[in-house]
Task: structure prediction
Amino acid sequence: MLHVTPEVAEALAEGRAVVALESTIITHGMPFPDNLTTAAGVEQVVRDEGAVPATIALVDGALRVGLDPATLEQLATAAASPRESGPRIAKASRRDLPALIASRASAGTTVAATMFLAHRAGIPIFATGGIGGVHRGAEHTFDVSADLDELGSTPVAVVCAGAKSILDLPKTLERLETQGVPVIGVGTDEFPAFFTRSSGLPVDHRVEGPADLAAVLREHARLGMRGGVLVVNPIPEADALQADEIDSRIAEAIADAERAGITRKDVTPYLLARINELTGGRSLTANVALIRNNARLAARTAVVLASL
Ligand code: PSU
Ligand code: MN
Result:
């Protein structure tokens, strides 16, 4: 069922380094044209490190692993705009795949859906910006991203910059602990808060770079563990935002979402777009920098893993 590009298929068959990349970040995470330049740039970062990028998406009912530039552009130009009443393209978490395939739809795949598909394609490592998690107020709404359950059940390493404080980070970490997901800090003792390097919340294990990280991933694989590994890589110092400022913009965005009655799968895309507006685009610049930083780490780690 997977349409894997010849480049990705050959790399996998030869045991070379491949890095999976998600596509909801393109369709629902950033505005056009920044989404397109970012997606293409991130693929180039992976290539520059000697690995093969495999961006995963649903295109006209086909599950694609590896996208050509024209398809990347097709997804990017269909990106949802917060100014429109409804998105022009679907956001597919794992559970959305069967119905969207049956109706020949196109969709960006979330972290959960991308992990699920990467694993089926045989790709053990995946880079993104931030994961979904337990939303603030989840004790009332039960809004917990399917990303966390996928991390608990699918053996793929996800390299991210932590999670945005649109989420309840302590509860997100509790959920990961319950699910048996190792959270590995790279060059940090703290769980990073996406736009900032620290959250005040400790990670249990720290590594310093790709070689140490690959060793952890290798042991995780040798143990045959059921779920994934969450690798948290803080945003580079030079690109980080001021904590007090971004926290108040995030609080405003959450209040706006409540006032506008945004619920369910629209919550995260709405908040990302609103934060971008409220920061005058500075959140987007930071977002691009941290994704590139994560893609670099994932590619370097994939190269070490391929050599083991
Ligand atoms: N967080 C971000 N950027 C993103 C997303 C989350 O900082 O682009 C996207 C990812 O694709 C993630 C999804 O898997 O949102 C989570 O959505 P939900 O909260 O509806 O599960
Ligand atoms: Mn949700």
